[in-house]
C-alpha cells in the first residue's frame, strides 16, 4: 500500500515538474522571440535620459546649427517645441515645430521631431538613426567649423521616408514610424558605447546610420551579435560584407546591410572603364590621413584591379593630397604627372580634403589645349554639385556611384516640395531614404503575414528571396543574404556632362555613362 502511495506521489511530482518546465520553456521562447514593443514617447525619453550618448525623439536639440543662416524666430519656435515634447505636451509641440518649419522648411531634425510629436503617446515602430550631429572631425581641414553637413544630408532622407509612410493612408497596420536621432559624433572611440545604448532599448526595432565606415565597422558586429538589423547608408568598405562584421556568430544569419555601393565593385568598374578606353597610365591623388582610411582603401582596391604590367597598365605616380596646401596649391603637380605620361588622373579625397581635390580639377588643362586626360573621381566626396561648379574643367569626369537621380525623378521632386525650392540633393540623402524604405517594406511584409514584429523578424523578411524595396532612384533594392550585405547591381558609372545647348537654363550635370554615348 505504501508502495502505491509513493508511486502516486512520484507521478504527481513529475506532472507538476512537467508543467513548470513547460511554462518555463514557453516563457523563454516568448522572451527570445517576443514582439518588439511598439514604443511611446515616454518610454524612449526615459530610457535615454541618463545615457552619456546623446539621443532625441524631439525632447532635446542635437544639431546646434540646423539651418544655413541663424534665425532667432526659428530657433525660439524649435526650442519651445522641444520643451513641450519633454513635458509630453504633444499638441503644443506640434504647434511650435510647425511654426518653426513655416519659418524655415529646410530643417530635417525639426521635421522629424514634428512627425514624432504628431504620434504623441500612440504606439509606433521606432528606428534609431545614427548621425554625426556634432562631428568630431572638423568640417574643413585645419578649420574650426563643426557644422553637421553630413548629418543634415542623411536626416533629409530619413525625414522624407518618415513623412511619406506616416500619412493616414500609408501607415503600416495603422501605426507610424518614429525616428530616434542618435549622435555618434563620427567618433570611432565611442562607437561601441553608442551601439550598446541603442541595443539596450528594446523599443528600437532596427538601426540606420553611422556615416563613417570605420564607425560602422566597430558597431556592426555588436548589432549582429544581438540580432539587430543595421543598415549603413554611407558605408562602402568591402569589410561590411565579411562574416565577422555582418553575421551573427551563432545562427550565421546576416544582420548588417548597406545601401551604398561596395568599394571593390566600384573600383573594378572604374578599372574596367579605363581598360575599355585603352587607358594604360594612371596617376592617383589620394589622402593618407590616418584618422580616415577611406581614400587609402579605394586606392588599394583600384590598383588591385587596374594594374597589370604584362598588359602595360600601371599607376605611374601616387601623390598624397593630405600634405598639400589648399590656399597655395601647386598647379605644377598636375602638370608634372601629365608630362610623365598620365592618361588619366584618379582623385580620391577624404571629406576633409575635398578642397584639394577641387584644386586638382581646376588645374586640369583646358579642353582647347589638346591634352586629353581622363578624370576619374571617388565614390562619395566628389559626387556633388561642388564638382559640377568646376564647369569645363570637370567635364568628362567619371565616377562609380550607388545611385543616380535626375530632376525628373519623383523622389527629387518630392524633396523639393518638402524642403522648399531647389536644394543640393546629395547622394547621402538618397541612400538614407533607401535604407529607411528597406525597413518600411520589411514591416509591411511582416504585417501582411499577420506576424508579430520583433527584431529578428525584420532580418528574416529582408533576406527572403522575394523581398523588394523601391529606391529613391526608382530602382529595386534586393539582397542575396548568402553572399553580400550590398543590394544587387548597386553600382553605376556617371559622367560630368556639359549643358545641353538646346535646352534653356541647362547646366553641368551627372549622367549615366551609357546615356552619354
From TrEMBL:
Gene3D superfamilies: 3.40.50.2300. Belongs to the leucine-binding protein family. The keyword Oxidoreductase does not apply. The keyword tRNA-binding does not apply. CDD domains: PBP1_ABC_transporter_LIVBP-like. PANTHER family: LEUCINE-SPECIFIC-BINDING PROTEIN, PERIPLASMIC BINDING PROTEIN OF ABC TRANSPORTER FOR NATURAL AMINO ACIDS. The chain crosses the membrane at residues 7-28. This is Leucine-binding protein domain-containing protein. Keywords: Membrane, Signal, Transmembrane, Transmembrane helix.
Amino acid at each position: 500500500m505504501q508502495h502505491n502511495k509513493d508511486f502516486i506521489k512520484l507521478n504527481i511530482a513529475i506532472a507538476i515538474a512537467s508543467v513548470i518546465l513547460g511554462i518555463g520553456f514557453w516563457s523563454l521562447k516568448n522572451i527570445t522571440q517576443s514582439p518588439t514593443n511598439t514604443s511611446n514617447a515616454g518610454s524612449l525619453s526615459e530610457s535615454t535620459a541618463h545615457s552619456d550618448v546623446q539621443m532625441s525623439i524631439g525632447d532635446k536639440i542635437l544639431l546646434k546649427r540646423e539651418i544655413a543662416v541663424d534665425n532667432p524666430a526659428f530657433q525660439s519656435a524649435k526650442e519651445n517645441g522641444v520643451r513641450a515634447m519633454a513635458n509630453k505636451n504633444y499638441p503644443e509641440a506640434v504647434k511650435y515645430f510647425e511654426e518653426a518649419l513655416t519659418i524655415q522648411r529646410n530643417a530635417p531634425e525639426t521635421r522629424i521631431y514634428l512627425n514624432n510629436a504628431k504620434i504623441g503617446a500612440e504606439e509606433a515602430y521606432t528606428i534609431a538613426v545614427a548621425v554625426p550631429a556634432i562631428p568630431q572631425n572638423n568640417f574643413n581641414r585645419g578649420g574650426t567649423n563643426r557644422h553637421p553637413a553630413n548629418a543634415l544630408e542623411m536626416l533629409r532622407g530619413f525625414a522624407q521616408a518618415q513623412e511619406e509612410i506616416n500619412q493616414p493612408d500609408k501607415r503600416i497596420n495603422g501605426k507610424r514610424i518614429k525616428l530616434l536621432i542618435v549622435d555618434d559624433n563620427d567618433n570611432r572611440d565611442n562607437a561601441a558605447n553608442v551601439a550598446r545604448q541603442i541595443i539596450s532599448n528594446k523599443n528600437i526595432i532596427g538601426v540606420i546610420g553611422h556615416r563613417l565606415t570605420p564607425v560602422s565597422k566597430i558597431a556592426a558586429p555588436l548589432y549582429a551579435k544581438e540580432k539587430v538589423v543595421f543598415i549603413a547608408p554611407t558605408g562602402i568598405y568591402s569589410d561590411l560584407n565579411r562574416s565577422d562584421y555582418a553575421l551573427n556568430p551563432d545562427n550565421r544569419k546576416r544582420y548588417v546591410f548597406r545601401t551604398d555601393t561596395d568599394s571593390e565593385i566600384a573600383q573594378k568598374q572604374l578599372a574596367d572603364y579605363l581598360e575599355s578606353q585603352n587607358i594604360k597610365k594612371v596617376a592617383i591623388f589620394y589622402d593618407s590621413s590616418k584618422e580616415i582610411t577611406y581614400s587609402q582603401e579605394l586606392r588599394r582596391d583600384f590598383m588591385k584591379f587596374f594594374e597589370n604590367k604584362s598588359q602595360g597598365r600601371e599607376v605611374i605616380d601616387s601623390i598624397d593630397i593630405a600634405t598639400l596646401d589648399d590656399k597655395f596649391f601647386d598647379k605644377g603637380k598636375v602638370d608634372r604627372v601629365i608630362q610623365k605620361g598620365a592618361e588619366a588622373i584618379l582623385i580620391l579625397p577624404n571629406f576633409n580634403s575635398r578642397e584639394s581635390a577641387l584644386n586638382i580639377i581646376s588645374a586640369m588643362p583646358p579642353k582647347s589645349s589638346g591634352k586629353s586626360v581622363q578624370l576619374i573621381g571617388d565614390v562619395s566626396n566628389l559626387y556633388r554639385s561642388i564638382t559640377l561648379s568646376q564647369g569645363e574643367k570637370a567635364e568628362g569626369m567619371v565616377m562609380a556611384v550607388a545611385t543616380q537621380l535626375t530632376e525628373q525623378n519623383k523622389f527629387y521632386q518630392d524633396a523639393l516640395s518638402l524642403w522648399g525650392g531647389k536644394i543640393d540633393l546629395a547622394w547621402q540623402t538618397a541612400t538614407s531614404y533607401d535604407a529607411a524604405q528597406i525597413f518600411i517594406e520589411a514591416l509591411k511584409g511582416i504585417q501582411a503575414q499577420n506576424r508579430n514584429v520583433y527584431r529578428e523578424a525584420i532580418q528574416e523578411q529582408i533576406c527572403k528571396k522575394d523581398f523588394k524595396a523601391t529606391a529613391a532612384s526608382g530602382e529595386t533594392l534586393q539582397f542575396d543574404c548568402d553572399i553580400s550585405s550590398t543590394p544587387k547591381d548597386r553600382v553605376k558609372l556617371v559622367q560630368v556632362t556639359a549643358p545641353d545647348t538646346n535646352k534653356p537654363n541647362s547646366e553641368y550635370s551627372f549622367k549615366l555613362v551609357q546615356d552619354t554615348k
